[in-house]
UniProtKB/TrEMBL annotation:
<dbReference type="InterPro" id="IPR036069">
    <property type="entry name" value="DUF34/NIF3_sf"/>
</dbReference>
<feature type="binding site">
    <location>
        <position position="66"/>
    </location>
    <ligand>
        <name>a divalent metal cation</name>
    </ligand>
</feature>
<dbReference type="InterPro" id="IPR002678">
    <property type="entry name" value="DUF34/NIF3"/>
</dbReference>
<dbReference type="InterPro" id="IPR017221">
    <property type="entry name" value="DUF34/NIF3_bac"/>
</dbReference>
<dbReference type="InterPro" id="IPR015867">
    <property type="entry name" value="N-reg_PII/ATP_PRibTrfase_C"/>
</dbReference>
<feature type="binding site">
    <location>
        <position position="104"/>
    </location>
    <ligand>
        <name>a divalent metal cation</name>
    </ligand>
</feature>
<feature type="binding site">
    <location>
        <position position="65"/>
    </location>
    <ligand>
        <name>a divalent metal cation</name>
    </ligand>
</feature>
<protein>
    <recommendedName>
        <fullName>GTP cyclohydrolase 1 type 2 homolog</fullName>
    </recommendedName>
</protein>
<comment type="subunit">
    <text>Homohexamer.</text>
</comment>
<keyword id="KW-0479">Metal-binding</keyword>
<feature type="binding site">
    <location>
        <position position="327"/>
    </location>
    <ligand>
        <name>a divalent metal cation</name>
    </ligand>
</feature>
<comment type="similarity">
    <text>Belongs to the GTP cyclohydrolase I type 2/NIF3 family.</text>
</comment>
<dbReference type="GO" id="GO:0046872">
    <property type="term" value="F:metal ion binding"/>
</dbReference>
<feature type="binding site">
    <location>
        <position position="331"/>
    </location>
    <ligand>
        <name>a divalent metal cation</name>
    </ligand>
</feature>
<dbReference type="GO" id="GO:0005737">
    <property type="term" value="C:cytoplasm"/>
</dbReference>
<dbReference type="Pfam" id="PF01784">
    <property type="entry name" value="DUF34_NIF3"/>
</dbReference>
């Protein structure tokens, strides 16, 4: 029996809620975390039409990229589409879950999958900072390996494509247990010297509590000597946007045709052509004008995103082609990625892609 909390936990392994922006509202929005799930419908947005589709397909959980409840609700009277959608979900006992800016920032998140449409593999355009910490602790030599492995299993010691990363140095630990102590080594009121290892590992800030609990459980000492430092390091796998290169440079005209072909669209806006070849391309699914300067600084020949304002197109300054393909068009492919991710975890369970076009923008 698969419950809402199981699905939420799987999604948050990929895109922890701690990675969402402060203004966001990702996570479980409507429903009981202990409710059994009959099926999942994955959509970019949640609307009344999507609720009806979920009912028709016997899916009692909807996972959307955009949170239907974004700003605070002060009433549920059905006066707008947000309230109508939430009321419909509650009446039909349908769970609503959103994975938004946390999924934008996640490894292989929204911008990564936009780049995959163009066959590009690269790296995060704007990695996050101050989301990593260093844990240092002291442990008897004979226990160092088991404690280290327990911490690795809890999520410590991962650096990029490398797991089980740590640094160990040797030394002598000194302590005197008092009368109330129950020491693993030594006796009360007797000074002890023990060959110890100092172990240092990197950990994600959002996993600090879990990793510390693992340390306390795995460590043999009654009182564990440890300290944590906040790091200024960039976390290159987590952040906004994506950038990489085509195998071969192409003309601007071919590049613009490529966009139509790869994204299946005919209409989009772009800044003036620069007269240069296109090879390095930056991406950001959704509203990405905040990364224009980052894309330019990274040497991108073009930047594909959505929601660029009129005056922001001037920021191209003949250095880059800014391409606004539309908010919906730059993110809709994440539906396939979510479906594939959850289907691989929950085998023989219905994870369906919504067929409802929720794009509110039309062209005459």
């Amino acid at each position: 029996m698969i419950k809402v909390k199981d699905i939420a936990s799987a999604m948050e392994q990929w895109a922890p809620l701690a990675w969402q922006e402060s203004y966001d509202n990702a996570g479980l929005l409507v429903g009981d975390k202990n409710q059994e799930v009959s099926g999942i419908l994955v959509s970019l947005d949640c609307t009344e039409e999507v609720i009806e589709e979920a009912k028709a397909k016997n899916c009692n959980m909807i996972i959307a990229h955009h949170p239907i409840i974004f700003k605070g609700l002060k009433s549920l009277t059905g006066k707008n589409y947000v309230e109508k959608t939430v009321i419909s979900a509650i009446k039909n006992d349908i769970i609503l879950y959103a994975s938004h800016t946390n999924l934008d920032h996640a490894p292989k998140g929204v911008s990564y999958h936009l780049a995959q449409k163009f066959g590009i593999k690269g790296q995060v355009l704007s990695p996050v900072k101050e989301n990593l910490k260093k844990l240092s602790f002291f442990v008897p030599r004979e226990n160092a390996e088991s404690v280290r492995m327990a911490l690795n299993s809890a999520g410590a010691g991962q650096i990029g494509n490398y797991d089980n990363c740590s640094f160990t140095s040797e030394g002598i630990g000194r302590f005197t247990p008092n009368q109330e102590a129950n020491p693993h080594i030594g006796k009360a009121l007797k000074a002890e010297e023990v060959e110890e290892m100092k172990v240092e590992v990197i950990l994600p800030s959002h996993k600090e509590a879990e990793i510390l609990q693992t340390l306390f459980t795995a460590h043999p000492y009654e009182e564990v000597s440890y300290f944590i430092q906040k790091l200024d390091n960039t976390w290159n796998e987590v952040g906004a946007g994506y950038i990489g290169e085509l195998e071969k440079e192409i003309s601007e005209a071919d590049f613009l045709q490529m966009i139509k072909q790869k994204l299946g669209i005919q209409n989009f806006r772009h800044s003036p052509k620069t007269g240069k070849k296109i090879k390095k391309i930056a991406f950001c699914g959704g509203a990405g004008s905040f990364l224009i300067q980052k894309a330019k600084a990274a040497g991108a020949d073009a930047y594909i995103t959505g929601d660029i304002k009129y005056h922001e197109f001037f920021d191209a300054e003949n250095q880059i082609i800014l391409v606004d393909v539309g908010h919906y068009e730059s993110e809709v492919m994440i539906k396939d990625a979510i479906c594939e991710y959850l289907s691989n975890i929950f085998c023989n369970f219905a994870v369906l892609k919504s067929e409802t076009n929720t794009n509110p923008i039309n062209f005459a």
